[in-house]
Structure formats: C-alpha cells, structure tokens
Amino acid sequence: MKDIIIIGGGPGGYESAIRGAQLGASVCLIENDEIGGTCLNRGCIPTKALCRNAEIVEILKQADAFGIELETFSLNVAKIQSRKQGIVKSLVEGIYQLLEANKIEIIKGFGTLKDANTVLVKTIDGVMEVKGKNIILATGSVPSSISVPGADLPGIVTSNELLEFDHIPKSMIVIGGGVVAIEFAGIFSSFGTAVTLLVRSEIIKFVDSDITKRLVTTLKRKGMDIQTKLSFKKIEKTESGQFRVTVDSKKGEAVYEADMLLMASGRESYTQGLGLENLGIVKGKKGIDVNENYQTNVPNIYAIGDVNGLWMLAHVASHHGIHAVEHIMGHKAHINHVVVPSCVFVMPEVATVGLTEEQVLASGKPYETNKFMFAANGKALALGEGEGLVKVIACEDKIVGVHIMGPHASDLIHEAALAINKGMGVADIANAIHAHPTLSEAFVEAVLGLRNEAIHQMPKKKR
Ligand code: FAD
Predict the structure, then answer these.
(1) Ligand 1 centroid vs 140 CA: distance in angstroms?
(2) Is-contact 18 102, C-beta < 8 A?
(3) Is the distance from CB of 381 to CB of 373 less than 8 angstroms?
(4) Cα–Cα distance for residue pair 417/351, rounded to 1 Å
(5) I need a surface site. Which of 76, 165, 263, 345 has the fewest CB within 10 A?
(6) Which residue numbers are catalytic?
(7) Which of 85, 96, 82, 83 is nearest to 34 (CA)?
(8) Which atom of ligand 1 is nearest to the CA of 312?
(9) Is-cis flag, bond preceding 437, omega within 30?
(10) Ligand 1 site, residue 318, Cβ cutoff 6 A
(11) Nearest atom of ligand 1 to the alpha carbon of 313
(12) Angle formed at CA 404 by CA 403 and CA 408, multiple of 5 degrees
C-alpha cells in the first residue's frame, strides 16, 4: 500500500509527488496523457513560447525607432511550432527525470476511484488496482463553451487546437475576456491577424480597473477590436466558410465575421470517469468541494489545483498540492494561500496581487493609492517600453494591493507579493536599496508616492 496515490500529473500532481517523496512518502502518480498536464503541454509554457514570438515581432515593428533599418521580415510557422515543441519537450523530459530520481512510481493510465483506498487504473495492458492510504485528485480542467446556438460548430477551436496552428489566419474572433482569451488575442494580433475580442462582461475582471481601462486602450490602439458587455445570440458559418457571431449590445444587434473562431470563454474542472459518485464525493458549481487543507468530504482524499476550481493557475495548483502532502505527512501548514499573484502575458504585461481598489473601497476601510508611470523610469524608456504604470494600494501603512501594467510586470509582481505576505509598509520598501537603473525602481517610487516622497514624481497637491 502506497502512502499517497496522485491522479493527474500536471503541476499540481507532479509537484505533490516530488514533495511527498522529499518527506519520505511512497508515492504513485497516475497520468493518462503526458506528464506536465495542461500547464506544460497545452497551457502556460507553449503560450509563453508564442508570447515571446509576439514580443519579438512587436520589437521588430519598432526597429526604426532603435535606429535599426529593416527592409522586411516574415513569420515561419513551422519553425515557430518546432521551437515551441522543443521547449515543451525539454521541460517534460526534465520532469520525468525528477520523478525518477525521487523514486516515484509513474503509471500511465486512466484512474477511477473504487473506494477510499483503491484506484482502478485502465492502462494499455488492462485494468490494474493501486492501493493507497491517501489519494490526491489533481485531474485539472478542460475548456468550456458558451451555451448559444452554433457554439459546437465544426472548426471552432479551443486553446488546445489553436496552439497547433499551421498558418496565421487573416482574421480571428476570440470569445472570452479572461487570461487565455487576452493572451491568444495578443499573440495573433502581433502576428498580423485582425483580432476581434467579444466579451460577455469586461476583460480580466480580477484586475484593478485602472489597469484594465489602460490595457483596453493600448490593445485597441494596436488594432484589436474589443467589444464588451455583450449577450451572445448565435454562431453560424457563412457560405464562404467564415464564422459569423451575432450579439446584442447596448448599441443594438451586431454581427462579426472572421476566418477563425477561438472559444476561450473559460474552463471547467475535469472529473469525468473519476468515480466521485462511487464514494459520494461532493462537487459544487466550480469544482470538487474542499476544506482549508484541500480534503474532500472523504478525509483521506484530497482535491488540488484546477479540479477544485478555487483558482485556475499553475502556481496555485502546485501550492495546493504541497500543502495537501504536508498535511498528510503531519506537517504544519506554512503557505499563505491568500496572496496569489496573477499575470497576463500580453504586451504590455499585466500582473496583479492582493486587493483591487474596488475591493478596498467596498470594505469601507480608509486607504491610499499611488500610481507611478513607467514613462518616468529610465530602464523602461531604454527598453522602449515606457507605457504603463505601477499602482499601489495601502491600508494603515500596510501594502494590500499592487497592480502593474508594463515591461516585465510578471517578474516585478513578486516583490509586491512578498511585501503583502509579510505585512510590509512604506518604510520597509523604502529602506531596501534598489539598483539603478531597473524596472523595480518603479515599484519603490510607487510606494514612496503614498507618502508624497517619490523623487521622480510631481508632488501631489495637499488634499
Ligand atoms: P492540469 O495541468 O490540467 O493536469 C491535470 C492532469 O490530469 C492532465 O495531465 C490530465 O491528463 C490528467 N488526468 C485527468 N483525469 C485523469 C484520470 N482520471 N486519470 C489519469 N490522469 C488524469 N496558469 C498559470 O499559472 N500561468 C499561465 O501562464 C497559464 N497559462 C495558461 C494558458 C492556457 C492556454 C491554459 C489553457 C491554461 C493556462 N494556465 C496558466 C492554467 C494552468 O495551465 C492550470 O491552472 C494548471 O495546469 C492546473 O494544474 P493542475 O495540475 O490542476 O491540472
């Protein structure tokens, strides 16, 4: 009997497996497809490889401003794809080596719960039984769709299929306003596709509205058509093979047509065939119900990552898994699951952690905010990326939210996450010398500006 059986080898599952082995548990990892899950094979990594292509294209478009004379350039889709695949392959192989080095048993097959200590695994050789004291469900999520006539028309792609694109379409409709939708819209817009983003409510709703408003303006200026607050009526295919989407908006009915349609309206937790019903494991609207230790209503069965639907982010899946394993092994929880950074890999990048101004306002607590523009940051200008800002929100001198749009926002956000995690205030940040010239100086100045002490910001008028 294993100490821990894990079903699903994505970032939640494989990191749990390695942590379990580090703590001395005997671990078995069951994966039906490729180790690395959505993140490595169909999500974070392949999209970020393509985002880099998009960034390079954007830089090449500005070559003249850098004094580089370039006649023309073109995109080789086959090479773009093979670079992307190469990155995925090398990471997946690395994970296999780590699992092997940690003596984790990997079973390739589909896992189904039989009872609280038994998983049936359907492999190419037949069905086998694996016994364990504890089971971690880490089966992730799959793309979901909108319920509107025509949403299941052949040729409509999800992120899974779009990642395997073999040509760059002339035009594309993206349905959805979340991270996946924005990232693909950004990539293909940079590649020269005429992108129309159709959104039911607003884009990336979890981000402070000061940032989203600016992001919309920037993306529109770059040529993206963004339509929000829509009610979808139907999707059809025209005689010429285009997709036609009919929506209702404040301005009345509108019709949009494009060569390709990406359905990126969200993801749903994946539990098909898992056998939850065999044990009466409760699944709510978003995913499998769990307590603060990620235990389901069957206490030796845990559900972590996308399948519990709490946050659909790879780093959250890993942290859930590590917490669950440490709980199983009798360790005290040490991870703060409230301060979660989120990033949107578009140009300019967006990153956010902690509370938005809207949330602080709703709490009724007194607060202060300050915004520092990258246009006043030397490094950003040297990069040719002076667009965007760092916005800081503080309550009673403690930093509670930081929202960034600008170069390397996804890297900059972690100093803010640490500050919020540790309850730091203005003095803590001000007292840490930041190197010059760096993008990180924008964070320090944003924080100092809360006290009207930022050096490269105009003094605020006395309130
Ligand atoms: P998954 O990674 O989905 O892994 C679940 C695994 O379980 C799969 O390999 C599946 O084959 C396996 N499985 C399912 N059922 C069974 C079964 N019964 N038996 C055996 N195996 C089974 N997140 C970020 O943090 N940053 C990003 O930049 C980012 N970009 C993304 C881009 C895209 C296009 C997409 C789609 C997602 C992105 N995400 C990103 C989200 C991220 O990929 C997920 O949050 C993360 O992969 C969830 O990890 P997980 O371990 O919970 O599940």
Answers:
(1) 5
(2) yes
(3) no
(4) 11
(5) 76
(6) 436
(7) 96
(8) 45
(9) yes
(10) no
(11) 45
(12) 145
As beta bridge partners, residue 252 has: 249
Ligand 1 centroid to residue 312 C-alpha, Å: 8
Q: Please report the atom of ligand 1 found closest to the CA of residue 34.
A: 9
Lowest mean pLDDT among 205-214, 222-231, 277-286, 329-338: 329-338
- Please tell me the residue having the least CA distance from ligand 1 atom 12: 8
In terms of Cβ atoms closer than 10 Å to its own Cβ (0-12, 13-18, 19+), residue 167 is: exposed
Confidence of residue 462 (pLDDT cuts 50, 70, 90): low
> Which residue spans within 153-298 are E strands per DSSP?
171-175, 194-198, 225-227, 231-237, 243-249, 252-258, 260-263, 267-269
Residue 447 has which token pair? Answer: 């924080």
- Give the 3-state secondary structure of 18-72: HHHHHCCCCEEEEECCCCCHHHHHHCHHHHHHHHHHHHHHHHHHCHHHHCCCCCC
The stretches of 102-257 forming alpha helices (DSSP H) are 159-162, 179-190, 209-221
pLDDT per residue as tens digits for the range 58-99? 999 999 999 999 999 999 999 999 999 999 999 999 999 999
Rounded to whole angstroms, the Cα distance separating 33 from 41 reads: 10
Ligand 1 centre distance from Cα of residue 77 (Å): 25
